[in-house]
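tool_call: predict_structure(chain=1)
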Amino acid sequence: MTDGKYMNIYVDADACPVVRIVEDIAEKYNIAVTLLCDTNHVLNSDYSDVIVVGAGADAVDYKLISICHKGDIVVSQDYGVAAMALGKGAYAIHQSGRWYTNDNIDRMLMERHLNKKQRRTSHKNHVKGPKKRTSEDDERFRESFEKMVRMLL
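tool_result:
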């Protein structure tokens, strides 16, 4: 399903908790991985290529979208990045393990927009961060991500 070309995995790796899991599965199936991060989150990897971009707003997002292609996998928690990846014919997965699809991305983007609008009108700009990540979260991502990879091979 990769149109005869080699599939790549691109990770929006700024503060991404599943990089090691992605690399483990990619190595198992011999798939190239590229980690993208900004100058505030420089990463090192023994397996993946690492691309460091300037720390400007959305710089990592734009670089990732400019290099991903149809049939590639994009790992990102950013719905906007996922929507652009889907638009290019790539597959996208959230660090929770939820697959972004053409059937759910519009709803997710609308919910993000409405939540942002609600925060602005309620003057609650400080939002609690995500719950602490658990080993169950990691296992859920691992299973979902490997299922996606196997589907595309």
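agent: Residues 8-152 form a domain with the Rossmann fold fold (CATH 3.40.50). Proceeding to next step.
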